[in-house]
Amino acid sequence: MDNQVIDKLAREEIKNREITPSPSLWQKMEKQLNAEQPKPKNGKNNRFIWLGLVLTLVSIWFVFYVTHNNTDIETNTLFQKEKKNTIIKDHIIQEKEETNESIDIPVKLIENSPEHINTSRFISPKKIITEKNQKLINSEKIKIRNLKRLIFL
Amino acid sequence: MKIVRLHTNLDEVINKAIDQDRSAQKYLYEKYSPKLLSLCRQYVSSIEEAEDILIASFMKILKNLGNLENRNQIEAWMKRITVNESISYLRSKKNMKIESIEDKDWSEPDYQMESQLIVSDIQNMIDKLPEGCKVVFNLYAIEGYKHNEIGQLLSISEGTSKSQLAYARKLLQEMIVQQNKLEIHG
After folding, report:
1. Is the Cβ pair A25, B55 closer than 8 Å?
2. Would an 8 Å CB–CB cutoff place A27 in contact with chain B?
3. Which residue does chain B place closest to A39, by CA atoms?
């Protein structure tokens, strides 16, 4: 018998054959499909979490920015005021020096400073003002530091 | 015009099935499962086992539908997956081992095919073949695979594939002759 005869018979008869599956087979498969179907990702919840996180970061940044800027503005205004006073005082001093008159500027010096004891009347006005400025700067620095602490706590 | 419409519909159905649309998946199942079940039945003797393989194959088909490049070849693609799944099943459940039987004499028996065979006869005969040569015969004679492809698929040499095919043919011819003798004598 030719080999091709049996091959051809098998090919023609079996290859075109169809067998209808039992009716319950689809239901069986559907169960598996339902079990294996990937659960939809909870996109809405994730979105809210991200949005919340971004909003928190933005608000922290905003609070920090505003408070930091305000203290800068306050400091700047104080410095400007002080600068203005200094210029005016300098101007007055200059005028007085020109007229050889003594200067009477209310001075508040640190206690125990030798200048206060001995030569308070003869201290250079410029030095006095610089010390005042330094005090002011220090107090502003403390203020800023306290604000920063408040923000980060 | 009608062919174009049908093709477009199949394309839509595939797209929906990829998006986990159950009715589209059912449509594909109903359209192709009879052919695929027949294919599974070639490799196992019981219809229950064939249905188990069909489910496993179809699950893989639906899972990988998005990777199908040429949608015109969907049936061939599905058949390839089903054949692979059938072979995996035989390997795992039946511990199928295919060994070379080259040292045997494969000379053609001197028979003439006289009787008319019907399909159920052929399937019954194939069912009676040992696992290894049954798979090789199915792949070569029915599915049209070449020996080198069978070798790759079953991890055997081309020589082993050829010898298994020859052995299957010999056994089938003997079965046919036996059946003819029975028919003639009563």
Report:
1. yes
2. no
3. B20
pLDDT confidence of residue B1? 46
Q: How is A26-57 classified by DSSP, letter by letter?
A: HHHHHHHHHHHSPPPP-HHHHHHHHHHHHHHH
| Residue A12 confidence (pLDDT) | 83
- Residue A97 falls within a domain, yes or no? yes
Domains and CATH numbers, chain B: 2-93 (1.10.1740.10), 119-185 (1.10.10.10)
pLDDT tens digit string along A55-75? 999 999 888 888 777 666 566
Residues of A in contact with B42 (CB under 8 A): 14
Taking CB atoms and an 8 Å limit, are A26 and B26 in contact across chains? yes
Inspect the interface and report whether the beta carbons of B126 and A20 lie closer than 8 Å: no
- For B158-174, write each residue's pLDDT tens digit: 999 999 999 999 999 88
**Which helix (H) or strand (E) element contains residue A16?**
none
Asked whether residue A24 is assigned to any structural domain, the reply reads no
Asked whether the predicted pLDDT for residue A124 surpasses 80, the reply is: no
pLDDT per position as a tens digit, B103-148 = 555 555 554 554 556 656 888 999 999 989 999 999 999 999 999 9
Residue B76: burial class (beta carbons within 10 Å; 0-12, 13-18, 19+): exposed
Residues composing chain B = 186
Candidates A19, A29, A33; nearest CB to B38: A19
3-class state of residue A110 by DSSP: coil
**B134 neighbourhood in chain A, CB within 8 Å:** none
pLDDT at position B185: 65
Whether A35 has its CB under 8 Å from any CB of chain B: the answer is no
Distance CA B92, CA B103 (A): 28
